[in-house]
Amino acid sequence: MLLALDVADADEICLVVNDAAAAYRGVIPADRWKEPYMPLEEVHEEIGAGVVFWGYRRGGRLAGVMGLQEVHDVALIRHAYTRSSEQGAGVGSALLEHLRLQTDRPLLVGTWKAATWAVRFYERRGFRLVSDEEKARLLKRYWTVPERQIEESVVLRSRRRDSVRGE
Q1: What are the DSSP calls for 113-161, one per residue?
Q2: Residue range(s) defining the domain that contains residue 12
Q3: Fewest Cβ atoms nearer than 10 Å: which of 83, 99, 149, 151?
Q4: CATH number of the domain to which 144 belongs
Q5: What digits encode the pLDDT tens for the residues 111-160?
């Protein structure tokens, strides 16, 4: 079951994100890893910054989360995580399709370039990688991330909405 999440769900959002993000340990550069990967305060900050979290509940517990944040003229897919025990069961696909219906703006998603499984997930669902030059421009315009994260990230754009305006 898909449902909107809010600040009252922050603890459960953290559980899902931190369970799923364990896959990044030892894959992304060590200087980008932190424990916990997403602390509770960060969930509160993200909600305060306009990230609207959606969840997929199965068997009475949150199986996956995905956020949508409209910034300028685009919508960003943010904090997309599925519990490790639920991966491969359609949770992420259901959330992504639901978020696509929530906006008519071009969709962008950023992830770690070393997280090849995440890149493949988005590519199989109609997203394509942008060039390194475009990646840097998009990350600086639409996200607030340090230069080191820009170096280690990729950005994918939905093929359904290819044009992203503005500089």
Answers
A1: TT-HHHHHHHHTTTEEEPPHHHHHHHHHHH----HHHHHTEEEEEEGGG
A2: 2-161
A3: 151
A4: 3.40.630.30
A5: 999 999 999 999 999 999 999 999 999 999 999 999 999 999 999 999 65
